[in-house]
Design goal:
195 residues; alpha+beta; Homing Intron 3 (I-Ppo) Encoded Endonuclease, Chain A; 3 domains; 3-stranded antiparallel sheet; 7 helices; 9 strands; 35% helix; flat
Length: 195
């Protein structure tokens, strides 16, 4: 076992599995505190003396603003459904369109959702957003034909048609071919076996 070395930063004794710090092309073994301090110092220098731009500046810099009636897509991180995600220190990752609505209109109640009138998930134009309940959002999705069966991702009207055809005695394989979907989705919807 190698002996401990003295940290050049704070003169504490560092175990052999200590941290390394680069200075003028050479690596020095340092204690955890000095390693953390060096990382923090580099981070603050890189970010501009530890100051972050205001929330509004950070958010709107990630939105491509256009005319008042056009969609303003969010160009930051997006989830798999296409909705923008914006990280705020106090709340973590938030939906970008909700942040846009709150920056313009003030805080939204927790039991309300911010809905798109344009049906474009990355859109952050406040003119295209409105508050509503979860029931309002589902009714809006149903009216626009975007509501899907939660287990199979088949549109609701098509799922209803698959169930009606199945009640008439059509096998799941033929039902799937009739509705141009996979047998797996039909059987998952009906809870039957493919045959």
């Amino acid at each position: 076992m190698r002996p401990e070395v003295q940290c050049p930063g704070c003169t504490a004794w560092v175990p052999p599995s200590g941290f390394y710090k680069q200075a003028s092309g050479r690596f020095f073994k340092v204690c955890r505190a000095c390693s953390y301090g060096a990382q923090r110092k580099r981070h603050t220098l890189r970010k501009g003396a530890g100051t972050f731009p205001p929330l509004q500046t950070r958010f709107w810099s990630k939105v491509a603003r256009g005319s008042a009636d056009a969609c303003w897509p969010f160009h930051g991180v997006r989830d798999r459904k296409g909705y923008g995600r914006f990280h705020m220190k106090s709340q973590g990752a938030c939906l970008a369109h909700r942040v846009a609505w709150e920056l313009v209109n003030g805080p939204a109640p927790k039991d309300r959702c911010v809905m798109h009138e344009c049906d474009n998930p990355p859109c952050c134009n406040p003119a295209h957003l409105r508050l509503g309940t979860d029931a309002d959002n589902k009714a809006d999705m149903l009216a626009k034909g975007r509501l899907r069966d939660t287990h199979t991702s088949i549109p609701v009207d098509e799922a209803r048609s698959i169930r009606i055809v199945a009640l008439l005695g059509v096998r799941p394989v033929e039902n799937a071919a009739l509705h141009r979907t996979s047998c797996y989705r039909v059987t998952k919807l009906l809870g039957a076996s493919c045959g």
